[in-house]
Amino acid sequence: MSDTNGQVRERLLLTVAEAAELLDLDRSRVYGLIRQGELGSVRIRSCRRVPVAAVEDYQQATVRERRGAVSAPTSPRRDPGHGPARVAPAMGPREERSR
User: Fold this and answer.
1) Which pLDDT band holds residue 23 (cuts at 50, 70, 90)?
2) Which residues contact 81 (CB under 8 A, 6 or more apart)?
3) d(CA 49, CA 14)
4) Which residues of 21-60 are buried (b: 16+ CB within 10 A; e: fewer)?
5) Mean pLDDT, residues 71-87 taken together
6) What is the pLDDT of residue 67?
7) In a domain? residue 23
8) Which strand (E) or helix (H) includes residue 48?
9) For residue 49, is it within any domain?
10) What is the extent of the structural domain holding 45?
């Protein structure tokens, strides 16, 4: 956008795809955030737009949330060497007859 002096003005609204790119998410995740009320948006006729301020607010809230969270202990990877052995399920009467 440019004004009459030829200066470029900053955009106020983004498409969902643009907001997703800024947040490093896919579009469906951004639509989910909008649906859950975590990311603000506006509807203009049939178009959904995300205010730049809403993206910035979401980013700041996410950073605050991550800083306040205590890291939980992680469990070992689930591979054949870790955890209980897997046991085959017991066969029911119907499965025994088909043999």
Assistant:
1) very high
2) none
3) 5
4) ebbeeeeeebbebbeeeebebeeeeeeebbbbebbeebee
5) 54
6) 85
7) yes
8) strand 47-51
9) yes
10) 1-68
